[in-house]
Amino acid sequence: MRRVFVTKMKLVPGDGESYPAMLVPRVWANPRRFNFDNIGDAMLALFEVLSFKGWLDVRDVLIKALGPVHAIYIHIYIFLGCMIGLTLFVGVVIANYSENKGTALLTVDQRRWCDLKKRLKIAQPLHLPPRPDGKKVRALMYDITQNLSFKRFIAAMVITNSSLLCVSWREEEPHTHPLATVSTVLTVVFVVEVIMKNIAFTPRGYWQSRRNRYDLLVSVLGVIWIFINATLQNDLSYSVGFMVVILRFFTITGKHATLKMLMLTVGVSVCKSFFIIFGMFLLVFFYALAGTILFGTVKYGEGIGRRANFESPVTGVAMLFRIVTGEDWNKIMHDCMVQPPYCTPANNYWETDCGNFTASLVYFCSFYVIITYIVLNLLVAIIMENFSLFYSNEEDALLSYADIRNFQNTWNVVDIHQRGVIPVRRVKFILRLLKGRLEVDPQKDRLLFKHMCYELDRLHNGEDVTFHDVLNMLSYRSVDIRKALQLEELLAREEFEYIIEEEVAKQTIRTWLEGCLKKIRAVSKQQNSLIDGLRATNNEPTAPVPEHGGPEEKQIKEGSLDRDSEESEGRLVHRANKKAVVIPRSDSLGSTSGRKYLAPTLSDPSVRTDKERPGLKKRSNRSQSSSKNNLPHLTEGTEPGRVANDITGNKTTMPRVSSVMLEVRDWWNEQLGYITQSSDEE
């Protein structure tokens, strides 16, 4: 007698009643989905058990037919085959993925360098405007919104707002209106936060951050919901409020570092595994078309029914996505293996509802192996790689998150326009402000500082540089490139650094030579002014005029008549009309052991050039005209006498330039000409 169950409900028979039953023939038969009659069936049964599907049925049959001791067989197989064997299979897939990608052949430092480059590629500027020090109200709002306590308060409000979703909001329930009121108050708090940040950052600075844009969107939706709820207060308004609270919950992911890293891991993994996911979609679609052709008319069974079948490609795709998760895939496979007398055979495909044993075995086993053991494990390998990238130990990383964060803050100070680019000339300010592993001391590492500045200048031809340009340059300078870089990248980098060092050395030498040349020109200009003063004093007669006429007086007169310069003549006339200036002699001037010459200074009127004495020239011309008009008794013949009177009026004798001084002056002019010619050739 076998019971007949017409429903899955647990019905208890009443008094004098029993469950419906019927007589069935007692025969020896195998279980429905597995047996160990031959090697093939045993391997198929254990393959199903390997996927953790149907192993409880095998255990129960073994216990009932053979005894509890024989159930140890299936437990040992589960432990060795599934928990260890499949884990090793996953390790093999990940190792092959790493070898094909090339990361398995890298050293530890090279792997860290690859992880560092991925980190730097993901890093972005903070888009946080600097503190407005000149405006008190904005500075106060800035300090409040950037305070850690304020951020924690907002995070607590977000969690409180999200906790309102623990119960349903329905119009007929009494707790709905108080929950909506609390949500309205919290929405007002979030709107106040947005207003404070707009005052602190200005609307332009607030809009630059994507997280701020999302907060603004949710806040605007919250304000709209407040008006809708105030007017309607029905299930529609409560549904809109539910949606706003759910959207508000996602803002908390950007307020905590760990949650932010987790979201970055998910996002980066999805982007990197896009082609793997796309290939899986193509594979599922191909198998869905094949399943529609092979098993489109199979009768319903334990796994195949109205919602899970291969009657069309659409339902086939849904069925295969169910198999991807491993949900009862062995039952579907056995339903597609159905043979007579459990089905109706026919002459053609459209009239029979039987399955195909061989096709079902190959179809489902191949699909399950490719999808579950290969494709999904590749996704696991990508997620593990990105997880280790974001959650690696700070001590093992070449640059920690604190160093990258420090650079972001420093960049935020220098990039005042928040455009993500700065002029090359501002890079030196970033290098001076950096701390930690990226710190560069311009006093101690002066040459390295020059190399960094020139490297960015050379790479971008003096134009603007981006956030990642400066960060990549600093990353190269902060690691040991001989250990971290691979061979090709190392050779290229060493060649580039050699060029940078050579150019910086040339530039340093050129700057030093230009400085020396400027000093030489300044000294030569000063010496030229001194030589011009000596020449001016040398052109004047220096011998005193004796009281009685003699050959010396005649020689002085003849020298005076030979002067044709109007400037010198005017100066002599002016000196004749002025009071004589007496220059005191030192005791050593008259002796042979004393000084031979009294060197004139720049303050001496005789040393000054004509440009420095425009008034003297005019006054000398006036004195000439006045002397001609007011003293008609003086003729041209009395010019030598006027010169003699000017000389006798000065009671000192002016020095003469020796031949040694002339030789020094000629040598100096020759050196200056050589230096000028060399600079022109360069």
Automatic annotation (TrEMBL):
Stretch list, region Disordered: 532-655
An individual GO BP term: positive regulation of synaptic transmission, cholinergic
Cellular component, GO annotation: monoatomic ion channel complex; plasma membrane
Limits of the Ion transport domain: 25-101, 149-394
Transmembrane segments: 76-97, 182-201, 213-230, 274-295, 361-383
Protein name: Sodium leak channel NALCN
Family as reported in the entry's similarity comment: Belongs to the NALCN family.
Pfam family, one: Ion_trans
Location of the protein in the cell: Cell membrane
Molecular function (Gene Ontology), one example: sodium channel activity
Keywords carried by this UniProt record: Cell membrane, Coiled coil, Disulfide bond, Glycoprotein, Ion channel, Ion transport, Membrane, Repeat, Sodium, Sodium channel, Sodium transport, Transmembrane, Transmembrane helix, Transport, Voltage-gated channel
Residue ranges, compositional bias (Basic and acidic residues): 549-572
Organism per entry: Timema genevievae
UniProt cross-references to InterPro entries, sorted A to Z: Ion_trans_dom (IPR005821), NALCN (IPR028823), Volt_channel_dom_sf (IPR027359)
Membrane topology, record value: Multi-pass membrane protein
Reactions it catalyzes: Na(+)(in) = Na(+)(out)
Skewed-composition ranges (Polar residues): 532-541
